[in-house]
Amino acid sequence: MDIISIVLVVFVAFLAGMEGILDQFQFHQPIVACTLIGLATGNPTQGLLLGGTLQLIALGWMNIGAAVAPDAALASVASAILVTYHGAGVSEGIALAIPLAIAGQVLTIFVRTLTVAIAHAADRKATEGSFRAVEFYHIGALMIQGLRIAIPAAIILAVSPQLVTNALNAIPGWLTGGLAVAGGMIVAVGYAMVINMMATPKLWLFFALGFALSAIGELNLIAMGIIGVVLALLYLQFAPEFNQGGGGGNTSGGDPLDDILNDY
Amino acid sequence: MAEESKFKLSKRDRLHVFWRSQFLQASWNFERMQNIGWAYAMIPALKKMYTSKEDRSLALKRHLEFFNTHPYLAAPVLGVTLTLEEQKASGQDIDNAAIQGVKIGMMGPLAGVGDPIFWGTIRPVLGAFAASLALSESWLGPIIFFLAWNIIRMAFLWYSQELGYVQGGNITQNLAGGLMQKLTQGASVLGMFILGVLVPRWTSMHFPLVMSRVDVPADEMVNFGAVAEAANEGVLSGDMLRGVVQEIQSGLSITPVEVTTLQNTLDELLPGIAPLMLTLACVWLLRRKVSPITIIAGLFVLGTLGYVVGLLG
Questions:
Q1: Fewest CB atoms within 10 Å of the CB: A59, A207, B112, B189?
Q2: More reliable by pLDDT, A242 or B117
Q3: Contact map slice: B 160-199 vs A, CB within 8 A
Q4: How many domains does chain B have?
Q5: What domain range includes position B229?
């Protein structure tokens, strides 16, 4: 592989590492990271497919408060290099992505602890009133987060393809088959994480409705999205908590049905 | 101190703060979390407001206190704080505790609003839609995901920061009260509905385990033998083929043995029941504080075992 590709891959890895903490532009999301790595290694279609599959698995990986989720950045970057550069299969890439996500999580926890020292250094500079030094520490911490993914990516790139192929071939058939099956199932964990965060007894109704309608194959996701938005708007219009006093003067006089419902 | 004219930030300054607020989490640490990021975002404004070393040092320290909220919902808090700092720089008596109080008071409720909207609804819905495009090898998948997300995000960051800046303290009631609560509820309804759709569609669980094999009686099966014979003798006619198609359409079996797998039985019961059960089991485990990684590892073991014994495929 030529030097330009290598530089590009490491650059994408660096971006993904920074985004893994910033969570703004979403370069660390599998669908973006895997596709970019695929483009850099000249195997874009494989990257796209891997990205799509991993994205479904990583749907629910989110950092809430101080809790650190499995790391999408290392999982997407490293498995995309293995698939698009070292020639592993997409299903092998998925299976490898999970331990990689845990490794990435451990690494980010390490960096987030290390930055405590940076925060104290920034305090000292703040006493001197130095804006520049505080900025320097802040961006320095971001660079460390970028290296957190760029260095492992460079190491995986450096491993000889022969070695990777041999290692992959050494995996017995029952294990690869089993991992592929499991890969299809772990999507459920991501869904469960999102549901766990949002679900209230009332909202389960909408989950049930979505489940029942999903059997109708003709309704694609855009149609489902429209139905979902309509449901949400109707809910806001009719749910009692948004129609009674509370904010004051919110009870609409214009809607007779609403008034009747409120009387009950 | 000399009489100061009322200090005003320009739109350029506020845009500068907006741009920097995107790096809020760069130095996220376990002690004070987004504290340096917060100071980093405030610096363009502080630089204009305070010129002496002492003032700058005090201002920096004030903004290096603990702060943590959803990275996007920090924007309205920044807006409000900019207003407060503006008043302070113009000589009004606003102490550190007041500024700190506003930050702490807003960050909790706002985080609770941002998580379900951005992480719980928009990203999964957009991600799932983009993934479905990507899986059919369409480049629109990643492109739509990236553009749509960043347009929504940047618009939100800028306009909510401006809202906070213009409205000042009043915004807390607006955001934590009516409007944001409506938005959260609406987003959650959409999110839960879409999740209900996605669970059976994209969790792939297939049970090839054979439940029963029943021989199909000769008169309920398409007679392919006769067709083959006719073809070999060169007397195959269009009418004959048409007859075969009609037989298939009328529901005759095309195989001599009817195999029912566990999957067929489950599909008859309710399509997608297995993924539903799996997802509910995961929710149940998560509620019992089992970590997601443990569940994932468990599913790997289960999936592999199921594959080896032939239950899953």
A1: B112
A2: B117
A3: 177-178, 182, 185-199
A4: 3
A5: 222-255
